[in-house]
Write a structure and sequence with these properties.
The complex is a heterodimer.
Chain A: H1 2-20, H2 25-36, E1 48-55, E2 58-65, H3 70-77, E3 96-99, E4 102-105, E5 118-120, H4 122-125, H5 133-140, H6 150-165, H7 184-190, H8 201-212
Parallel strand pairs in A: 1-5
Antiparallel strand pairs in A: 1-2, 3-4, 3-5
Helix pairs in contact in A: 5-8
Chain B: E1 5-8, H1 12-21, E2 25-28, H2 34-39, E3 47-50, E4 59-61, E5 67-70, H3 75-80, H4 82-87, H5 89-97, H6 101-106, H7 109-113, H8 120-123, H9 165-172, E6 175-179, E7 185-189, E8 212-218, E9 225-231, E10 242-248, E11 254-259, H10 279-286, H11 299-315
Parallel strand pairs in B: 1-3, 2-3
Antiparallel strand pairs in B: 4-5, 5-8, 6-7, 6-8, 9-10, 10-11
Helix pairs in contact in B: 5-9, 10-11
Classes of the chains: A alpha+beta, B alpha+beta.
């Protein structure tokens, strides 16, 4: 009987996680091979962890499956769906958000690792009524076609200008001991972690240029 | 992704002890490589020890004029440190040649050293790979090998090491500091850190179970001109086909290390004696015994030409 109760309890716990995480595709999908593969015996039951952080100025406390990425936390648990899931492996940049002032790929970070973090997503940069200057410039210059990569592009672009102001060198900085200059080459190199399948790159660079105040 | 339990470690020794105590435990810092591999279930840790809170994020001068780089210093911060840019340009250049800005903001010094290969057969769970499943064979051998190793490979594995940073560190003769589960520490010269694949390609370095990297120490500056020339399929955000790290002194002597050609950053100190004689003489010794396939044979002349280009740049005022 104990065995049966144990099993039922595990099922209920797993079910509850599935219900609160309406869509946790990676975690949910992973449980099937985990349960049938030869190594399943060593795989622990899903574990949860608490995390308290601030997203767009609002404090949140969540209790999440440890597997939940920062991206899935934002989209599936906080319903901030502006941040997009493209490749989910750090290659496309659609999931770029700003964490403690630095842009990162939210798909390659675990939510539970962000205790105390300050996170800014596209929703925190501006609103339709009060757009961030970078959002306004993307609209003006048509810095997108389908728009899927755009939130990541804009978060990245805002961070790029901060990085250049801070003097962070890049691969195309001619003299690495000097402060980098604001140039089209620098912008292109620094935006290379954001892929645009529609190929709106030249308009994206025009938009960033306008905000940075340089002539293209 | 398989389920795992998670803890935040408070001290390096506690982290090492926790990792040694729990079978299947792994450290996590930036997570940019580990989480990618966990999603594919190539890495299946049962427990993660988060080392981000250990305070190992400082770059400090050493008594003998070098720099001690904490294991958790982010790649972006190491590349941007003015002392590194001024005195270890090859390292700064290698760092900014790697990955994207988003990844460099997250990836750490120790994590970069421990990156797994980007061999497509390692990444594909449906292919045989001795590195992923020891004893299962190697689908790369006889497969598509344009990106694969040309020196130091074995009958079990021809994967390359993907790091740019580690190539510069090999050139600079850095020391890797660690703490072990019993709380003791040790220093591993980078020349003794990585392993060639041999018959055990799944064992990539000489760290022991639970051993945690705490810092990397750069010796006092070498002077000279610093270069990191990376040749890749895109102008940015791609792994190296080959890369050449070099420090060239005014008399033409110097050091050279290669990326993209072997299971580890590739350096042959004896070959450096030939530097005043030019790229051809150096390459002949650096890549002595190279074994190429039809698809990756281009890497031999590419190394020589890239090194020649570096040496020409070094001769400019």
């Amino acid at each position: 009987m104990d065995d049966i109760n144990q099993t039922r309890r595990d099922i209920l716990i797993t079910g509850a996680i599935g219900a609160t995480a309406a869509a946790l595709p990676v975690a949910a999908g992973a449980q099937t091979p985990g349960a049938t593969s030869p190594g399943a015996g060593s795989t622990p039951a899903p574990a949860t962890g608490k995390v308290a952080l601030r997203v767009n100025g609002q404090r949140s406390e969540l209790d999440l499956d440890t597997r939940t990425t920062l991206l899935d936390m934002l989209r599936e648990h906080m319903h901030l769906t502006g941040t997009k899931k493209g490749c989910d492996q750090g290659q496309c940049g659609a999931c770029t958000v700003i964490v403690d002032g630095r842009r990162i790929n939210s798909c390659l970070s675990l939510a539970v690792m962000h205790e105390g973090s300050e996170i800014t997503t596209i929703e925190g940069l501006g609103t339709p009524e009060k757009m961030h200057p970078m959002q306004t410039a993307f609209v003006k210059h048509d810095g997108y076609q389908c728009g899927y990569c755009t939130p990541g592009q804009i978060c990245s672009a805002v961070a790029v200008l901060d990085e250049i102001r801070a003097g962070t060198p890049s691969h195309v900085t001619p003299d690495i001991t000097q402060k980098p200059l604001l140039s089209v080459d620098e912008l292109r190199e620094r935006m290379s972690g954001n892929i645009c399948r529609c190929g709106a790159y030249s308009n994206i660079i025009d938009a960033i240029n306008e905000v940075a105040g340089v002539k293209a | 992704m398989r389920a795992f339990t998670y803890q935040r470690a408070r001290t390096p020794a506690e982290a090492a002890a926790a990792a040694a105590r729990t079978p299947g435990a792994r450290f996590i810092a930036g997570g940019t490589n580990l989480l990618d591999l966990m999603k594919l279930e190539i890495e299946t840790p049962t427990h993660l020890v988060d080392v981000n809170g250990l305070g190992l994020d400082k770059i400090e001068p050493t008594q003998d004029g070098g720099l001690r780089v904490g294991a958790l210093v982010r790649n972006a911060d190491l590349a941007a440190d003015m002392r590194v840019r001024r005195d270890y340009g090859v390292l700064s250049r290698a760092l900014v040649a790697g990955a994207s800005a988003q990844l460099r903001n997250k990836a750490t010094t120790a994590g970069n050293l421990l990156q797994r290969t980007r061999c497509p057969y390692f990444y594909d769970p449906y292919q045989a790979c001795n590195k992923r499943v020891p004893g299962s064979g190697c689908s790369a051998i006889g497969g598509y090998t344009r990106q694969h190793a040309i020196v130091g490979q074995s009958a079990a594995c021809m994967a390359t090491h993907p790091s740019d940073m580690a190539v510069a560190m090999q050139l600079l003769d850095v020391q890797v500091e660690t703490v072990r589960p019993d709380g003791s520490s040790r220093v591993i010269p980078i020349a003794d850190f990585y392993r060639l694949p041999g018959t055990t390609p799944h064992i990539e370095n000489n760290l022991t179970a639970g051993e945690l990297i705490t810092a990397v120490t750069l010796p006092k500056p070498l002077g000279g001109k610093h270069f990191y020339h990376k040749v890749r399929d895109r102008a940015s955000y791609a792994f190296a086909l080959i890369s050449v790290a070099a420090v060239v002194q005014p008399d033409g002597s110097g050091r050279v290390a290669l990326g993209g050609v072997a299971h580890k950053p590739w350096r042959v100190p004896q070959a450096e004696g030939a530097m005043p004689r030019g790229a051809q003489a150096v390459t002949a010794q650096l890549l002595a015994g190279a074994s190429t396939t039809e698809e990756n044979a281009f890497k031999v002349p590419l190394v020589e030409r890239t090194l020649a280009s570096v040496m020409a740049d070094a001769r400019k005022a």
